[in-house]
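cron nightly-structures :: item 1 of 1
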Amino acid sequence: MKKLLFLIVLTTQLVACSAEVGSDAWCDDLKAKPKADWSANEAKDYAKHCLFN
């Protein structure tokens, strides 16, 4: 039971740390990330929110 609680708390903290897709912080984070590591969804969202907006 303790392991499950720990996992839930850890997951919640990790999710809370990521920037919202389309925000300036998210765009800056993605610019710093190597393009080879981008997923197809990240590339699409980057183009939609950071380049054409």
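cron nightly-structures :: done
The two ends are 46 Å apart (CA to CA).
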